[in-house]
Amino acid sequence: MNSSLPRVVALLCVIWGLATLSAVTVNADSRPLFEVSHPTFDVTGSIAIPCTAYRATDDTIFCAFMEHDGTSAIDIGSTRDGGRHWSKAVRVMACPGEGYIADPTVLVCPNGVSVFATYVPKDPSGAFARSHFLRSDSPDGTKDWTPPREIKVPHQYVSGKTHAPVWLDDRHVVMGYSYDLPADRKQPVKLERQMYSRAGVLISDDAGLTWAPGGDVFVNILPTGADEPALLKLKDGSLFMVVRTSAPHPYESLSRDGGKTWDAPHPSALSTYNAPTALLRLNDGAVLRVWDNSDRHRYPLVAAISTDECKTWSPPRTIIDRVADASGKMPFDTACYPSMAQSADGTIVLVWWEQDGKTARIGSARFNRAWLESDARDVSGPK
């Protein structure tokens, strides 16, 4: 008998076992996953306007948000298990004075985690005349946050920083923002619905240490204009932008020079009502888009994917909708301001701002691409 035969048989058994294990893993990953929850981060006040960012070194997803419990502040929590559990929130920055602080943005940098926010001081006339763009840093995103310091921008009222910045390479990063034209013209308005914004980007060429304005995107639609831009780096290196407008559709634009200049924006084929869109490049290369799929309401919140660089989109899957329960009570008034990240295992973690009267909370969903595609067919998207 050949003495090597037992070794060959043993080797074949090992190969078969590994193949079986791999098949089981693939099958587990391909099963549709969808769960919805409302994390509290152990915060007692209302929480709103979340922004996520992913750190690959330890598979952590951060979520910064505005807390309001008599006064406003910016807090941050995190998850290391794909959104199953969230940490207790820690304070990043308190409101520096009379007024409020909002619009947090999270950036994972080589040397730590940075959070940006907008402080709006109380104006004697009650107008939106001035805001301050603040930044605080932490070595690990959980503690030792620096006192907030201001980043100078050449505008009076800056807002719209509700999406995580986009890295172009290991040095260049681009952050969307918007600014109010009436405030720049020293004619500030007193109501948000009267604001007329222009969307733009801030560009850093030193891995997020310093920032300078890039090009702007202008939509001549009153009110709102172009606000709260979402950004995505396409595979050819260009930047894709979706801006909130008061039209029945958001507008879209492209930059081919890292955000320095932008094409004339055009309306998207997808509908949304005066609310921001979120974009995310998935681990497998597809693009995820989440938005309020209505031309008159901030619901339902839906998700779709593109496999052709945002040219077409799958049919939207509903994340959450405003449907009455058995007693006839509606679960919320609005569900908007989505933000998302993806864990190493493929789980997509989505958060959003949910409002019911004067009560605000954060909703969260865990799902995967298998769920998105469990009932999908191609539809026309932005051109």
Which features would summarize this protein structure in a list?
383 residues; mainly beta; Neuraminidase; six-stranded mixed beta sheet; four-stranded antiparallel beta sheet; 28 strands; 9% helix; globular
Summed up, what is this model?
By secondary structure, the chain is mostly beta strands. The protein has helices at 5-30, 181-184, 369-372; strands at 34-37, 46-55, 60-68, 72-79, 90-94, 99-109, 112-121, 132-138, 149-150, 158-159, 166-167, 173-180, 196-204, 212-217, 224-225, 227-233, 239-244, 251-255, 266-267, 278-281, 287-292, 301-306, 312-313, 317-320, 334-342, 348-356, 359-367, 379-380. The chain is globular, with a radius of gyration of 22 Å.
Structure characterization notes:
This protein is mainly β and 383 residues long. The chain has a single domain (33-380), classed as Neuraminidase (6 Propeller), CATH 2.120.10.10. Helix content is 9%, strand content 43%. The chain contains three helices and 28 strands. It has helices at 5-30, 181-184, 369-372; strands at 34-37, 46-55, 60-68, 72-79, 90-94, 99-109, 112-121, 132-138, 149-150, 158-159, 166-167, 173-180, 196-204, 212-217, 224-225, 227-233, 239-244, 251-255, 266-267, 278-281, 287-292, 301-306, 312-313, 317-320, 334-342, 348-356, 359-367, 379-380. The strands form seven sheets. Strands 10, 11, 12, 13, 14 and 15 form a six-stranded mixed sheet that branches. A four-stranded antiparallel sheet has the order 1-27-26-25. The chain has a four-stranded antiparallel sheet with strand order 2-3-4-5, with no helix packed on it. The protein is globular. The N and C termini lie far apart (69 Å).
